[in-house]
Amino acid sequence: MHIAAVVLSLVLALATLGSGVMKLIRNPKIVASMEAVHVTPAQMTVLGLLEVAAAAGLVVGLWWVPLAIAAAIGSVVYFAGAVVAHLRAHDRELQGAVVLLVVSVATLVVLLLAR
Q1: Are 9 and 107 in contact (CB under 8 A)?
Q2: What is the C-alpha separation between 9 and 71, in angstroms, rounded?
Q3: Between the N and C ends of the chain, which has fewer C-beta atoms within 10 Å?
Q4: Residue 94: which of 104, 76, 103, 81 has the closest Cα?
């Protein structure tokens, strides 16, 4: 696997793991952000678990590239949805979702090119 694919996969894995864990432990800042976009506590748990799963898929994908590609696709869809949710709720605090969407797209593109 190309070094850029490894680096981006690990950066995205760390970011999604951190974001997912913050949702699962109910970090007050994250809870406030989720409430602003009308996410329920049950939905927050599911979203956190999806992010942790994506992180695991990206790390395991270092050895099995199709899994990394699938995890990157999932991350692109997840964070595109996050951006849309923030926009629909007229929430101006969408920088984190946009940055993670950009990193997800970059990771996916590099993974596909490195094949």
Answers
A1: yes
A2: 9
A3: C
A4: 81
